[in-house]
Amino acid sequence: MTTQEEQTRPGLRFPPGFAFGAATSAYQIEGAAAEDGRGTSIWDTFTRTPGRVLNGHHADVAIDHYHRYRDDVRIMAGLGLSAYRFSVSWPRIQPDGSGQVNQKGLDFYKRLTEELRAHGIDPWLTLYHWDLPQELEDRGGWPNRDTAYRFAEFAAVVHDALKDHVHTFSTVNEPWCAAFLGYASGEHAPGRREPGNAIRGAHHLNLAHGLAVQAMDARRVGGCVNLYAISPATGSEADLDAARRIDGLQNRFFLDALLKGAYPEDVLADLPVDMDFVKPGDMKTVNAPIDVLLVNYYSRFTVSGAPGGKASAAAAPTETASPWVGSEHVSFVNGGHPVTAMGWEIDESGLVEILTRVARDYPPIPMVVSENGAAFDDVIVDGRVHDAERQAYVEAHLAACREAIDAGVPLEGYFAWSLMDNFEWAWGYGKRFGLVHVDFETQERLLKDSALWYSEIIRQNRHHEPTDS
Ligand code: FCB
Description:
The protein is 39% helix and 15% strand. The chain is built from 16 helices and 11 strands. The strands form 2 sheets. An 8-stranded parallel barrel has the order 1-2-3-4-5-6-8-9, surrounded by 7 helices. A two-stranded antiparallel sheet has the order 10-11. α4 (65-79) runs parallel beside α6 and α9 (175-185) packs antiparallel against α10 (195-215). The protein binds beta-D-fucopyranose (FCB). Beta-D-fucopyranose binds at residues 25, 28, 173-174, 177, 226, 296, 371, 417, 424-425, 433.
């Protein structure tokens, strides 16, 4: 064993081929909102609506990635990333959400993916990270079934244009958020508070996923879910029921649909809606075979059935309703873990728990952790950002990945959220998740200590890979 190998903590050594990545999304980083024919998305409208986003922030410029993508890819290459997960802006490709394709939009992603490949970085493309064309929202948004078909059309356009550049396509990022924060709590665009329509939207997002998978037949295709570890506050019947409900709506509603082709009966019984919008054949479509499951993981929820507690795990920055349709009575209690600047409890054991659970309870499917990371209140001191807490967070969760692999989980990669500080939805620029610090005035990028550390972990793992690959 060489000295370098000895330096690598065994728990942070990964099998050859394990992808070390970082993730971003289009609206959060690109900017160039009015350039090269981009249309309007629901986030453009939402950020213009008073009271919806902290300090009235919007992402017209964001971190100017549209113009700086070459420099940003150079940063990724410098870190040694083997993969990069990004999303495509639907209104850049189809300004009106259907029909007419904007070639300049496609060209941007061609340039980006060519640049990535030239640096040996595998592009992981996400089709939908919440920036629905406004035109489609005006026609009813996700509660309108037609949106799912429009999404499949968009998927086919992107797939045809980029299939030679991109190996892994994924469909909808975190359908739970798109449905329940967008249409029930109103924390995210389009900001509607219509519980029944949130469920319709959730089904149509799942349907959109399945239709898109079918439309992209030939490629390696994945679906993305955000999973939480859920604990009951006590062993009481009410708390156990609360945990079953939140686990049902957050995790099983999506996992069972995508991987088993059915909604869980107990969850359907909790919902205050007639599911007549689920048409014959839909669930078979939703269950279209995928090649990889993308799992976003951040935290554990501890829940109670006793009324009167907090309606969600962490405070929202704006006025919102409950996203927990049919289970609004559930309270979220302190689970006793340290928290990030978002107020999200840090518990890496939850990551092992959910990964092993998917491997145990569902048909076999390779997985990646497609987002994981933490916001902290970073400061620059003498040209450095000593973000020891973020580093510890990533280290603990990487070790959890290793533990899951040792337990037999087919886990193939890890993507840190996020590569760079960016526009954090309803929090605007108020929360920093990046490994790379961004000065939002000058757009200057600066590697935080966590980035330097991650880069070193990647380098040490390279050392173990066969040299002839
Ligand atoms: C996830 C989102 C991502 C980012 C992180 C912090 O839910 O997918 O865009 O906002 O949370």
